[in-house]
Amino acid sequence: MIGFSVYNRHLQYLRDVLLEEDEDTAANWVNYGWASKPDTFHGIAFEGNRQTAQFQVRLFGLLAYTVRFPNIRIDFSPTLYIHQIDTGEDWVRLPD
Question: 29-32: long-range contacts (C-beta < 8 A, 24 or more apart)?
């Protein structure tokens, strides 16, 4: 979605949080929750810019991480990628 911009020096603070395993700072950016029941998919969705770029990561349809990237806006419409575990199929829903 952002191509080589992911290597931009302005994103170094995000890489530092990951490399240093800075859980306190990461806790300000990540929330998690549980669905009512598991399902046979993994997914990632760019939910758009809600003050900052926001993504949701789903594992087994059950665990949902909402991740907000501070001070980052992505010039792209909401997008969804799903991997169906039981069939091995992948699909992407791109903006119209």
Answer: 29/67, 29/68, 29/69, 29/70, 30/65, 30/66, 30/67, 30/68, 31/65, 31/66, 32/63, 32/64, 32/65, 32/66
Strands 41-50, 79-84: parallel, antiparallel or unpaired by DSSP?
Answer: antiparallel
DSSP 21: T
What confidence score (pLDDT) does residue 1 get? Answer: 64
Pairing of strands 30-34, 52-59: unpaired
pTM of the model: 0.77
What's the number of domains the chain is made of?
A: 1
Pick from 36, 25, 95: nearest CA to 63: 36
Cα 44 to the center of its chain, rounded Å: 6
